[in-house]
Amino acid sequence: MVNNRLVPMHPLKGIDAIGNVMRRGLCLDVRPLSCMSCQSEDFERPEATTESLTLIMYGRHDFNKGRCACKNCGIEHKQGLADFVRTGFWPASPDGEKFETIIDQRVFEHFAALKDRALHISTKV
Hints:
This protein is α+β, with helices and mostly antiparallel strands. It is built from 2 helices and 7 strands, in the order βββββαββα.
């Protein structure tokens, strides 16, 4: 509320317990296979960072990339492209270090099936 009027809020902002506007980060629950340091497979739940991530799956969804700590040694791991690919997401750009958009593989499967059923949208003549 600004000047006693309701105003729209950005999707990644929220209100804390005492009424202050705060940044609210959401990240996907994607964790590494194992810790780089101790090889443990036990990680804390990922927490959002400030790096943005766009997911294309049944529409466009805005998230943040996350990081999680190893429960054994405490070292933090950032979510990497390999972690997302392992869980069925693919980058929308060829740069694996600075990926900002990922696409659910079911989107590709949908378009492949659609291409086979609707010949007029096929790229083959």
